[in-house]
Every structure is written in structure tokens, then in C-alpha cells.
Amino acid sequence: MSCTGGTLKPIHRLDDLCQQIKVESKRTVAVAAGQDPETIEAVARAVEENVVNAILVGKKSAIMQVTGEKNINPDLFQIVDVADPNEAAVKAVSMVSQGEADMLMKGMVKTAEFMRAILDKEMRFLPQGSLLSHVAVIQVPTYPKLLIVSDAAIVPVPTLDQTLKILEHTIEVANALGIEMPRVALISASESISTRIQSSLDAAVITSMARRNQISGAIVDGPLALDVAISKKHCRIKGVDTPVDGEADILIFPNIEAANTFYKSTALLAGAKIASLVAGTRAPVVLTSRADDDAFKFASICLAARLASKRFYEASS
Amino acid sequence: MSCTGGTLKPIHRLDDLCQQIKVESKRTVAVAAGQDPETIEAVARAVEENVVNAILVGKKSAIMQVTGEKNINPDLFQIVDVADPNEAAVKAVSMVSQGEADMLMKGMVKTAEFMRAILDKEMRFLPQGSLLSHVAVIQVPTYPKLLIVSDAAIVPVPTLDQTLKILEHTIEVANALGIEMPRVALISASESISTRIQSSLDAAVITSMARRNQISGAIVDGPLALDVAISKKHCRIKGVDTPVDGEADILIFPNIEAANTFYKSTALLAGAKIASLVAGTRAPVVLTSRADDDAFKFASICLAARLASKRFYEASS
């Protein structure tokens, strides 16, 4: 499956992702309450670097004040004047639902209100039976590939059904990064299946489903401890025979604490660069927070644009 | 509380721990089935570097063959000839129980058999009402302190009671490292208490217990996500007011997958050096595996010796 009509070379660094997205047909992001300086700066960079077109849905006077102060050209954006942040969130979601934009981004609106707009059934932004999940793409200097990680932020302890949906979302992201047949490690604390450890049982079940061809588009194995998922040497020393073989593209964690810990330990202790998005919706959602730096925000916009672009080409082919 | 009669300077690097232990009264390790080359080499180094006295309980002919091949002086050890590995484990545990040694180490006996000997009630090696738990001491180049982490290997999903015991064990290790009043972060995925996330509720309860002075010898706070536990900057950006304040000494994880993931991500992706031991027993236990390198085994012997030494001084003062 190609994303651009031609063959997409697998992307192993976030910088390559940000470069690559520029040469494709640009998608449009609708920014909910896009009126805070941090969001406007990140979106302005993405427009200037030819990654996206942008619609700022927010308080126009506030936007004009920020662009004036930051010396940003306001003509980079289409501006839809909605003063109230919650109303801006609703408007931005509806614009994406109606096809006026291809992706959504959170600005200066509270996460709870932003999520309320996304989850509102009347918006038809969350397909029936779908699950919202968080997907992080992590670039660690000490690992040669990107690691696609889920779920570090939304689903506390995924059920089997939820894990299958989380897995589906990460496979779509892998495909968007040009990884046609990603290797998926279902993470637990050990490779042994223990009746005392639920995550090892769930991983065993999902691995059996993959063997019965009930999961397609990925090489899936678990339970695996993190070391054998990302280190061939540890596979050898421990004598673990797994098709993931220390070369995981995707890490599915059994609970939010484990995924969040991996995300934050790589970011703070291993010099990782990260992009993330919310999946499960009709269009990719960029949901950054104040603690995220500019590089993270920009990479996240690129990632969402890449996914939106893939969907556009698939829909039109 | 002093460990050596004088004041112990807090130890912030594993190398310092290994240096410091040499100047103290040496403790004795009993090694169960201490007849494999890796174990003999690690123990020989610890004896030569003045860290411990050692009793190898194992097949004497096998021990002599290894020392011959590796050019190790067999007089470094007391050798107790027990050919069968499982019987050797029982003998080593009973020697520690009877005060002939101060710490226990696993050699070439299966973990399950080794644990069976430890848990055997007749041995009285696990005090009544005690809990076996795993304590790792992690030195990451990108963090200025040692991080004491639990439980990455034994307790799958600790109950509140189990978490309190795990906490107690880590505080004892912190004290043995000269950290009198360790800062403890109860890790969850966020600082918010969510009724949907059990780990956040458990952390909230334990934090309240600490505020009611039901936990002594530590500054305890949670739920905390990993970033605010180890980064002052993230505390500031997120506006999180916590006495841990980005300077955690101890990280208590809510489940084995999260702790194991932290352990392995720091080891493989962040260049961590690690020592570990099993706590909750009458004497510290070194339980290394084939995937552990020599530096890990040596540091783990030093850590257990440090703890055994602390207990010796406390018992005799």
C-alpha cells in the first residue's frame, strides 16, 4: 500500500518525516481556539515550511494581537472569528467533520472541553464503535528506528477489544511512515506467560489471534519484556525466539502507567524527540500541552499531516 | 540514623557505593550453587576488592575446574561441597538463616528452585507477614542522583498493603545509601487523581497516610507522572506543587510492567548502570540472571553487602 501513489521509503527519523511531508499535497489543519502565542508560532512555522494550510478558529482580535507582537504575517492563516474557546472547539470540529479541514489541533481551550466537542455524537467526528487512543512516535538516539508507542495518555487499562483498536491505530501510523509490515511487541514484564500477570495472558491471546490471521498488516508477538523488543542481543542471551527479534516498530503497553513511563523516560533521560496524535477520529488530532516544546508541536503537526495525507490519497485512489 | 557509627555521606553513584563498601567491616555472602563461571568470576572480584567474604555452596569439583580454567585462586572462597543445585540452595539459605552468612546469592540453580528454598517456612528466611520484593538502584547519566525503583520483577500489581511494604524496603535501601530522608514519588500517568485510574487512587491514599504520619522516614507524594518526579522544570511548567519537586530518590511504580519498562528503558536506551536485590527476607538476596553483565553482578553484590553491613551495625549498636 503506497501513501503517495509512489513507493514511500520507510521513515526512521522525525526530521525525515518533517522534510517528506513538504513535497506532498498539503492538507489543512483547523485549530480550535488557536489564539495563544505558542500555538500560533507552531502553526505559523508549519505553514511557512509548507507542511499545512491552517485555519485558526478563535478570537480574531487576540490572534491579530499575537501576530503583531510576534511579527508573524496574519495572512499565513485563514481566520474564523469565534470568541468563546468552547464554541471555537465546536466550530473547528465541525469544519473537519464537514471536510473543510483534514486535521484538528487544540489551541487555548481546556482539554476537557476540547474532548467534549470531539466526543459529541452530533458531530459525527468519532465513528460509531471507534475508540479514541493516543499514539506517540518516539525517536531515541540509541535506537535505529522510530518507536510507535501506545497508549500513554488516554486509555487507562485497555481491554482486549480496546487493545485491538489501539493496535489498529498504531499500524495505520506505521503505514503512514512507510513501514508496510511493522513489527509489534506486546509489552509485559517478561516473555513467560504467567497466570498471575494479566498482561501476559492478554498478549498471549492477541498473539494467537495474529497466528490465526485475525490481525493483518503487522508481525505481532508477545508477551515480550521491553529488552527483547528492542535488543537483538537480549533475544540471543535470553534465548527468546520471537519474530520481533529486537527490532520493534510498535510497542503496545498493557496500561497507561507503563506507556507513560516509557514516553517520559525516553524524553527526559534518553534524549528522545517525540511527536504524538489522537487517533480513532475521522481525522487526526494534534493535542499538545503547555509542557510540550516547539519541536514537539511542530513534529506533531507533521505527523498528523502525514496521516491526513495518506488518508486523502487512499480515499482518492 | 547512621550506618557505620559515623555519618554516611549520601551515595549518588554506584561506583561510590562499590568504593565505600570496602572500608567497612566485611560481610559474608553464601552463594547457592556457586559453580558457574559467571558467578565465580563476579564473587572472586568482590572478594579480591575487599567487598565480601564468600562461601560457595556447590559442586566442589565443578568449582575447582572453573577456578583452574579461569586462573582464579580457590582460596578466595570457603567451599561447601553440595553437588545437587537444589540441595545447595537449601543449604545456602539455611547458612544465612543460622547466621553463618549475612547475605545470599543465586548461582547456577533455577530461579523457581532458589525461590522455593527462600520461601520454605521451615527455613524462617522470610519473616512472618513479610513480602518479597525487588529493589533496583539505577544510575542514569542524565540524572544527578541514584534512583531506587520498585517493583520491576516480583509483585505484579501491588495491593495497598503490599505497596506499603515495597515502600518500606526501598526506604531501607535509601538509608543504606546514606539518604536519610528520601523523596518518594508514587508514579501514575498524571498528577490528577482520576476515579478511572486505580494507581492514582492508591497513590492518593498513601500520600494521605504520609500526611497523617503513618509513614515515617521519607517524603512521600503521588500520584505523580514520571516527568515531575525527576524534573524540576516540568514541575514549574505544569504548575505542580509537590515536595518531591523533580528530585525523587525513590520511584514506586503501580505495576510490574511500568517498573520493568522503566528499568529496561534506562538500561538499554539511557546508558544506565544498575544494581538490584531481593528484599523482605532476613538477609539481602542477590538474584542475577544470565542476561546481566559483570558490572551489574558486582554492583549488586556491593549493594547487598551495604545493606547487610547496615543491618549488622544497627543490630550491634
Can you tell me about this structure?
- Chain A has 317 residues and is α/β, with parallel strands linked by helices.
- Chain A is 42% helix and 18% strand.
- Chain A has helices at 14-21, 37-48, 60-70, 85-97, 111-119, 160-176, 198-211, 226-230, 232-238, 256-269, 294-316; strands at 27-32, 52-58, 77-81, 103-106, 133-139, 146-150, 183-187, 219-224, 250-252, 273-279, 285-286.
- In chain A, the strands form 2 sheets. The first copy, chain A, has a 6-stranded mixed sheet with strand order 8-7-9-6-5-10, sandwiched between helices. A 5-stranded parallel sheet of chain A has the order 3-2-1-4-11, sandwiched between helices.
- In chain A, helix 2 crosses helix 11 (294-316).
- The longest helix of chain A is centred in the last third of the chain and has 23 residues, at 294-316.
- The radius of gyration of chain A is 20 Å and the shape is elongated.
- In chain A, 57% of the residues are buried.
Structural descriptors:
homodimer; 11 strands; disordered N terminus; 18% strand; alpha/beta; five-stranded parallel beta sheet; six-stranded mixed beta sheet; 317 residues; 42% helix
